[in-house]
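Predict both folds.
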Amino acid sequence: MNETQKPRAPGRFAGAWDSDIAYSFRHSPVAVVAAVVSLIIILAAVFAPLIAPYDPFNPASLNLMDGFTPPMEPNAFTGNVYWLGTDNQGRDVFSTILYGARISLFVGFAAVLFAMTLGITLGLIAGYRGGWVDSLLMRVADVQLTFPSILLALLIFGVARGFIPPAYREIMAIWVLIVAIGLSDWVQYARVVRGATMVEKNKEYVQAARVIGAHPVKILLRHILPNVMGPVLVIATIGLALAIIAEATLSFLGVGVPPTQPSLGTLIRIGQQYLFSGEWWILLFPSITLLALALAVNLLGDWLRDALNPRLR
């Protein structure tokens, strides 16, 4: 090698691979397994139209004679064999799980994004402005914390559906569900961001930005927000699992997504009706999928919380 040639600087990928978080991830078997399980379920849901052997939500492809077919056993009338059996309408359970997971994940991600956006915005305003603005927003947050989030989501969902014309209720059901779950979960983001903002706004780099006349919005978005995102990402990861469970709970109670587009919660509600009549597979497989997804995301959130905690490094 030429003596004047300088060694190459490590690439961006190599630098990320050698970071503390990547090192912690590689040496945490629980985090690796949780990430693999989450990735498998998410990819299977995203590519459901390519993976699923049947379209369970197309009435033209359903045959009621295939109803209640046990897993890996030929149907007595049609002779068709299904990996995980069929439900009461003859829908392939494996296909319904893939399509149902798509809806559950979409609602979960969208609800977390909505709650995170609302909570971060209100938390930044409360922490930076202080005074009566901070007092008002935090008292609203304190009042909301006195109610269980699932009951609050039920209330918001019911009130929102009351303002929607009956002809559009099924079309807007998923979006109403997203708003209901998001409005019930924004408080934790706001309180964490508000506390971090109150610490950051008194630091020298923020004072310097004020001295040079930077606009408060620019200070919040460019200087303070990047420094408060660590705890927010941890809450969002754990909140994703909680949002998926909340969606499943609301759908199980019959106030979630419409029956024409059932999620994992709707599939579990359908399955429990036939559990004691011997058709156990209708309930078991969607329940295992929901449990695996929620547990894997929760374990990832726990690992991320420890990885971002400087006291544990």
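Second protein follows, with its predicted structure tokens after the sequence.
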Amino acid sequence: MCSSTGSAKPTVLIENDRVRVTEWRFKQRGDNTGWHRHSYDYIVVPLFTGTLEIDLGDGERMEAAMQNGIPYFRETGVEHDVINANTFKCAFVEIELLEARS
């Protein structure tokens, strides 16, 4: 994933030939990942219940409801900036699938 700098803090927890697992922490409302494009299919596991705002570019934004521990999947090519829309700290774990298993 290539990225512009955001204010959220990424911590890579696992990285090998097949997966990259990154924890994203948002300290306050408005913290963001920075604009980026996903180069791999990925799964997100929210560590909170609340809302993220997704900047899709060209002024288009959407809200995404998150439920603690309920994962969702996205395919390669997604471009966005993810923003904390909550009044509290939040985090999620992102699992990028770097290589298909044979």
